[in-house]
C-alpha cells in the first residue's frame, strides 16, 4: 500500500501542471482564449490560442508596394497595433 501511494505521488508530480487559467500573458497583459490583443512590441494583432502552453500568434503590419516612388510615414512605437505600423503613400 505504501508503494502504491508513493508511486501515485511521483506520477502526479511528473504530469505538467496547468497554469492558473487557460489564457495567455502578452506584454504583461492577461488575454482570454480566442480573444485578440493589439501589441506594441512586436507591432502585431495577436490571438490567444488557449492551449496548455499559453500559445498565441498573429499578424503584423501590411506591406504596400508602390509602382513608383513612395513616402514612408513611420508608425508610433508607443501606440498598439495598428497605430505602430508605418504608412506608405504612393507618389505616382
UniProtKB/TrEMBL annotation:
Q: Just give the chief location class.
A: secreted
This protein's GO cellular component annotations are: extracellular region
State the protein's name: PXCC family protein
- Pfam families, A to Z: SVWC
Q: Which residues form the Single domain?
A: 24-90
Record's keyword annotation contains Secreted = yes
Name where it's found: Secreted
Enumerate the UniProt keywords alphabetically: Secreted
Amino acid at each position: 500500500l505504501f508503494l502504491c501511494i508513493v508511486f501515485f505521488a511521483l506520477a502526479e508530480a511528473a504530469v505538467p501542471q496547468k497554469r492558473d487559467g487557460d489564457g495567455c500573458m502578452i506584454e504583461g497583459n492577461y488575454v482570454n482564449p480566442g480573444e485578440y490583443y493589439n501589441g506594441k512590441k512586436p507591432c502585431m494583432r495577436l490571438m490567444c490560442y488557449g492551449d496548455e502552453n499559453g500559445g498565441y500568434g498573429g499578424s503584423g503590419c501590411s506591406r504596400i508596394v508602390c509602382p513608383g516612388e513612395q513616402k514612408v510615414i513611420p508608425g508610433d512605437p508607443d501606440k498598439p497595433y495598428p497605430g505602430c505600423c508605418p504608412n506608405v503613400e504612393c507618389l505616382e
